[in-house]
């Protein structure tokens, strides 16, 4: 049996009510991780005190920094980690007891894949006033060495969940010379396709190991604002940058265009809900660079739905001006 190691990185900000339960779910694992690194992101409550008071039977670092956002906290955690694999865990959520043992078994028996993806469930905190309930089921299991085949299967199952709490990956993929989280809202969404395209071997297990807490005041449940809009715009820009990969297969480019279409819709809808203007130039530039018919159509439809006639006219002119669009 091949040995392997897993580090768990936890960014924490003002989660004094939830942090102990999250850490307990790590402590109660049937097979423990090799290290846990908690980054307190400038909390103004007793989060840091709770973290320091907790004891784990594995190497456990607690680092306090000025508030810089979840992405920066995760990047710092990566720089401190020493294991072969890394898992990003949110400080208000929970893990099933056999999470680490299952992940290590998949690493051992599948020749050290680049990434292991799994299912999750959401549950409502006792004080939660909303009605959000997301099913994070992958809907399939398998081992893939073909990126397009993996994406085809995941897309067909509606299972392209972007949260890093739903996958474990090789630490070699991360760092200043590799992948890093950005400072924007929706940084998980922006980074997901770069993660997938940095990998070449994928393991998917349709087993629930992550339990997401729905609670008031989290970034998952707050109303859209300018930060969400800028984050959605960054998702478009980051995904578009994948087009610079010269070795992309035709089907892989199709998936990028498909993802761009989704990001474009999210951006326009988020801007509208936040009461902010759509940056038409950015949308048009994305359409032109991707040369995608479906992206142009989606932008037009959602521009019309938003009753932004000037937006629609500008997008229409861009579509007419640029020929040779791809069909997807």
From TrEMBL:
GO molecular function: hexosyltransferase activity
Keyword check for Transmembrane: no
Keywords: Transferase
Domain of life per record: Bacteria
Pfam families, per the entry: Glycos_transf_2
InterPro entries: Glyco_trans_2-like (IPR001173), Nucleotide-diphossugar_trans (IPR029044)
Domain Glycosyltransferase 2-like per the UniProt entry, residue ranges: 7-132
Protein's name according to its UniProt entry: Glycosyltransferase involved in cell wall bisynthesis
Source organism per UniProt: Halomonas korlensis
């Amino acid at each position: 049996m091949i040995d392997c190691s897993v580090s768990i990185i936890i960014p924490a900000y003002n989660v004094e009510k939830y942090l102990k339960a999250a850490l307990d779910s790590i402590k109660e694992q049937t097979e423990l991780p090799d290290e846990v690194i908690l980054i307190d992101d400038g909390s103004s409550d007793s989060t840091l005190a709770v973290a320091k008071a907790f004891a784990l039977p594995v190497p456990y670092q607690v680092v306090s920094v000025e508030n810089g956002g979840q992405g920066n906290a995760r990047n710092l955690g990566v720089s401190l980690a020493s294991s072969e694999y890394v898992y990003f865990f949110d400080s208000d959520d929970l893990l099933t007891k056999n999470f680490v043992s299952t992940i290590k078994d998949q690493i051992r028996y599948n020749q050290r894949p680049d990434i292991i993806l799994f299912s999750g469930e959401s549950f409502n905190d006792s004080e939660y006033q909303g009605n959000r309930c997301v099913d994070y089921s992958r809907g399939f299991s398998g081992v893939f060495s073909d990126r397009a085949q993996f994406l085809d299967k995941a897309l067909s199952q509606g299972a392209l969940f972007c949260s890093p709490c739903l996958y474990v990956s090789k630490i070699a993929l991360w760092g200043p010379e590799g992948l890093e989280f950005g400072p924007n809202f929706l940084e998980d969404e922006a980074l997901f396709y770069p993660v997938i395209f940095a990998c070449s071997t994928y393991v998917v297990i349709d087993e629930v190991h992550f339990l997401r807490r729905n609670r008031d005041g989290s970034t998952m449940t707050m109303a859209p604002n300018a930060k969400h809009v800028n984050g959605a715009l960054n998702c478009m820009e980051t995904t578009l940058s994948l087009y610079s990969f010269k070795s992309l297969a035709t089907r892989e480019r199709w998936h990028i265009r498909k993802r761009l279409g989704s990001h474009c819709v999210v951006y326009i809808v988020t801007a509208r809900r936040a009461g902010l203007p759509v940056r038409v130039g950015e949308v048009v530039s994305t359409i032109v660079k991707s040369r995608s018919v479906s992206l142009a159509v989606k932008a037009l439809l959602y521009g019309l739905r938003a009753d932004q006639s000037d937006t629609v006219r500008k997008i229409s002119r861009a579509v007419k001006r640029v020929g040779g669009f791809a069909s997807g």
